[in-house]
Amino acid sequence: MNRLSGEVTGSVTNLAANEGASAETSAETSAGTRPAVGEPAIRARGLSRRFGDLLAVDGLDIDVAPRSIYGFLGPNGCGKTTTVRLLTGLLTPSAGEVTVLGHRLPAEAEVLKRRIGYMTQKFSLYEDLTVRENLRFVASIYGLPPRESRSRIAELLATYALERLQHQRAGSMSGGQRQRLSLAAAILHRPALLFLDEPTSAVDPENRRDFWERLFDLIDAGATILVSTHYMDEAERCHRLAILEAGRKCADGSPAELMAAMGARVLEVEGPGLRQLKSELIALPEILSAAQLGSRLRVLVSDEVAEPAAWLRALPQASGLTHIDPVRPSLEDVFVTCTGTGAGSDRGGPDTGSGSGRTADPAAEPIETLNHP
Ligand SMILES: Nc1ncnc2c1ncn2[C@@H]1O[C@H](COP(=O)(O)OP(=O)(O)O)[C@@H](O)[C@H]1O
Ligand SMILES: [Mg+2]
């Protein structure tokens, strides 16, 4: 049997194995330690994690409401996975306080592990096992009795459109099919809280949409979900999200709140010489970003400018423009104003610590974007 990912298999093992507790024991434990009504499912204050010289997670304050989807949005290397590992109890914080489902971490990490599901960033099931065999394996880790295991697996195969694939080996499945299997495995023990780390990075848009519908079904059934992503369209589906950059939270709120509090207005302009215009505009302090979309240039103008369209119209550089239209902000605009980076911005981001050991520079690897008309 070939272990595809030590991390993930490890996560299943870490989350549930070798505890010697039966599913019944776990259910009793869970019932006795639920957070009080109105308490957040996750509460973190000053959560930090250092790896040598690198502060990978830097003083995060997070509140996740029960029965909601909370997102971490940020580029590679910003600390999403590290934060998820801290919140699941798999990693010990260097500083800060965390309570998850009423359990203080790290002291109560072992109890918590039976109450959460964790879908890791890399596919973590066994490629050489079939769909059904993988689910049976996970059920055995959680100590489900045979009868309960059979009925739960049958239910999951039906819910996640895996019945037809149940005898197929996981290694031969498509990205979307694997992801449905991973989700089924992560919720097999009916966790109250589910962590999904970049769940749809290998999935096409149609399957991604389908996946999110399934997440809302889980919320409807009472679960709470924390999802990390670098896709704007995923972030927009969250009830609330935190924008992370270099281990820090630079904004949080609902997508609508974030857009309303952005501190900039968005204009789309059209005319000849847009490449030249763009480079001239981004040199102005009032312009936070300019990015071309087809034949239009999307320009973020600081709130300090009272009448952005008139102000832009009066600039000598803009004399050739045929259109200047105010448009609705998008989450990408929020990201750009918040971090100073983003797709299409030539300005680059704040120094995210060259020499800090980060694997990716957000400015060099812009996050995937979704633009609104
Ligand atoms: N175990 C580790 N040891 C040293 N550095 C780490 C470790 N895990 C993560 N990092 C570093 O911490 C930073 C954040 O990583 P990560 O949390 O994986 O980011 P993301 O999931 O947002 O891509 C990166 O610079 C990464 O190289
Ligand atoms: Mg990650």
TrEMBL record:
The segment(s) forming the ABC transporter domain are 42-271
Stretches of Low complexity bias are at: 16-33
**GO MF term list:** ATP binding
Query: Which Gene3D superfamilies would you find in this protein's record?
Result: P-loop containing nucleotide triphosphate hydrolases
Region spans: Disordered: 1-38, 339-373
Q: Which InterPro entries match?
A: AAA+_ATPase, ABC_transporter-like_ATP-bd, ABC_transporter-like_CS, DrrA1/2-like_C, P-loop_NTPase
Keyword Transport in the entry? The reply is yes
Q: Which domain of life is it from?
A: Bacteria
Write the record's keywords in alphabetical order, separated by commas: ATP-binding, Nucleotide-binding, Transport
Q: Where is the composition biased (Gly residues)?
A: 341-356
Q: Which SUPFAM superfamilies match?
A: P-loop containing nucleoside triphosphate hydrolases
The protein depicted here goes by the name: ABC transporter ATP-binding protein YbhF
**GN (gene name):** ybhF_2
